[in-house]
Structures are given as structure tokens and as C-alpha cells.
Write a structure and sequence with these properties.
single chain, globular
Length: 178
Amino acid sequence: MNYLQKMKGSGQSPPKVSLSEVFWSWIGSFLGIAAVALFHYKLLDKTGLVMIIGSFGASAVLIYGAVRSPLAQPRNLLGGHILSAIVGVTAFQWLGGQPWLAAALAVSTAIALMHLTKTLHPPGGATALIAVIGSPSVHNLGYLYVLMPAALGAGVMLIVALIVNNIPKGRKYPEFWF
């Protein structure tokens, strides 16, 4: 198969999901993101929602909408965000004067480490990137960014996923822990 033919694809589109699946995905993602935002708003800071990082939106898609995916499991959710946050903060601290280089190094190194540790979670790439390109309030957190928002936010979303994803009979979460 030549190079350009590979781009045509060979599979069919994914199957439709039931309305029940859509409903529980919506409920889980609403409650998960709301819990992280409310936690931040009530306990930390009513102005800048630093604890809500964009990568949590992508995590919500996985842990509430694709609950059986290996990329959505607790090991991947927590490990992916935590490792990627460490890498992102380190890249910013070492190469913050060259943000294009720090960004590229953060994302690519986070992917490599997630692969090596079997914690691949695509939103982790965004967590690493946010540590580099984020606002001064993100940069001022330093390695605290690893604990909050990355670990704490992912942990709150995991608790919601464990509760909500096991309510309907047809859903089970997680598929594995380790």
C-alpha cells in the first residue's frame, strides 16, 4: 500500500450509541466538570478558575463518554495528568524563554513517558502544554500545578466517574486499575 492510499482509511464509521449512553455521558461530564469548578470556586478562588484546565474537558469525553477505552481508565487518567504536569512545568522552567521549544518538548516528552509507563491519556498532552503556554497564574504555581489542578482535578473527576458510570446496568467503570 503506498503512502497516500493509507490516508483513505479502511474502516467504517463508529456505531451509534444509545440515548441512555448519551444521557449518562452527559450527566457524568456535567457533574465531573461542575464538581471541579465548584470545588475551586468555593474553596480556593472565586475569580480565576485555575483548577479548570482545558485538558479536563477532553478527559471528560474519555471517562464519561468512552468508559471502556484503555485511555479512560484510572491509571491513565491520573498517571497521564500527573506525569504530563511534571514534564510541562519542568519544560517551562528550563526553556520558558523559548516557548515554542518548551511547548514541543513538553508535549512530546509527556507522550513518550505516558507510553513508557502505560498511562497514555491524550488530554495529558494538553496538561503539559498548558503548563508551558498558560497564564502567569499557572506559571506562578510551579510544581504545585502538578497537585492542583492536575492531580486534584483528575481525582475529583475520577470519583464522579466511579459513582456515575456504575449507576446504569449496562455500564461498568473501571475496566482495570493497574
